[in-house]
Amino acid sequence: MDILNAKMAVHGFSFRLKGATRRIVNPDWSTSVVQRFEWIPKLREGEYKTLNVFTVMRPLSYDGLPIGGDATYPEPPEGQAAALPIDGVRLDQKMLNPIKQQKYSVENALVHEVGHWLNLLHTFEFGCSEFGDWIEDTNWEAEASETCDFSKNTCPDRPANQTVGDPVNNLMDYAIYDKSCGKPFEFTDGQRYVQGNKVSSSW
Q: Domains of the chain: which residue ranges?
């Protein structure tokens, strides 16, 4: 909780711990995106605005590919009852390993997933198309950045990219896991607005 608040306070968000952590051992529960329907409804607590964070020991996957975490997106009021049972954030527990933390940033991974929970897409979500990530002040990006290559520019024909390039140090890209970056990772003003607006309209 301290980590999350330290990272999110600068962006205008704060969280309060309401429940104790629990360790559940059940080898029959899958960690695939689809099969989270099996176990999250059994463990989730609180109302729709209550953030539930689950760490899982078995590797998370999406379409057969490993992922460090995932999250549900917020729903408007009329859809919240149906969405509530699986609402929340999941993190691969290996991100909490001290050895892993020497190279990878679990803090940024958590903030990234909470960003999704507050309605942010990846910066590379729709590539170089006119939609981008639907945020006006984030630059376009054709593919995820996995390292801090600040010369990367995968959408050079987009006007905004002609001076800055890809949003490598954005919290909704994938370079967030790399601790060697040297630049702070951040949300843009537009991303902060979307998160705040979704909170006020959904809750």
A: 1-96
